[in-house]
Design a protein that fits this description.
Blueprint lengths: L1 E5 L3 H13 L3 E5 L2 H10 L4 E5 L7 H10 L6 E5 L4 H10 L3 E4 L4 H16 L5 E4 L2 E4 L4 E4 L2 E3 L3 H12 L5 E2 H8 L9 H14 L4 E4 L3 E4 L3
Parallel strand pairs: 1-2, 1-3, 3-4, 4-5
Antiparallel strand pairs: 6-7, 7-8, 8-9, 10-12, 11-12
Length: 219
């Protein structure tokens, strides 16, 4: 799952990115409102974390522009401690949730997971796929209750397919959601990750739709 973090505090960006990367998320960073608006408009993010106090363009105007353009990507806004009016404005502008600075990183991760679950219609943080279980809280994967070691890219592929179970995902879409903005989006490597997942998790978990993409049966 791919997330845009629009935040201008370098230390906070580093902390949040490491936290979300550890859960199998891919994170792009925009440190000003202009870049945030552009990336949020042109890139297919699964959700956006948006600081309202961005330089160049404030978060509220960026959010309103996204919503006016019909962009429905879920947005979690970050506001200053005393910015209750900003919270109201942000929610009225189309935000899905908010957090007040300073905040605890585990709570941010939990809110991100909750938003992504709602977006995909998943109610449980643990996704069951036959004998395979994916815990979205920590990226832990088991087969018949036995832990399986996956790479970050393998977790990213599995997570996106699991959140979209029952829908055929084209290779190009999958590559757009597992690589960062400046990453090498070679859709041909997707087949390599799929083959590795089949070896580790079983050959029947992921179905190939010939010439089109991949799918996990919702069971």
């Amino acid at each position: 799952m791919r997330i845009l973090l629009a935040e201008d505090e370098p230390h906070l960006c580093d902390q949040v990115k490491k936290l979300l990367n550890a859960e199998g998320r891919v994170v792009d960073i925009a440190n000003n409102g202009t870049d945030a608006q552009y990336l949020g408009t042109t890139e297919p993010y699964d959700m956006i974390i948006l600081d309202l106090g961005l330089p160049e363009r404030d978060g509220i105007s960026v959010l309103r522009e996204w919503r006016n353009a019909g962009i429905k990507t879920p947005v979690l806004i970050l506001t200053a401690r005393d910015g209750w009016s900003e919270r109201v404005d942000g929610l009225d502008a189309g935000a899905d949730d908010y957090m007040t600075k300073p905040f605890h990183l585990p709570e941010l991760a939990a809110r991100v997971r909750a938003i992504l679950r709602r977006q995909s219609g998943q109610l449980n943080p643990v996704i069951e796929m036959g004998n395979v279980m994916l815990d979205t809280r920590n990226g832990r994967v088991t087969v018949d209750d036995v832990p399986v070691d996956l790479t970050a890219q393998e977790i990213a592929v599995l997570t996106y397919l699991a959140h979209n179970a029952g829908r055929m995902i084209p290779r190009t879409e999958l590559s757009e959601h597992i690589y960062e903005y400046d990453g090498d989006r070679d859709s041909n490597t997707i087949a390599v990750f799929i083959n590795r997942l089949r070896k580790k998790l079983g050959p029947d978990l992921i179905t190939t739709v010939r010439g089109r993409g991949y799918m996990i049966d919702p069971g």
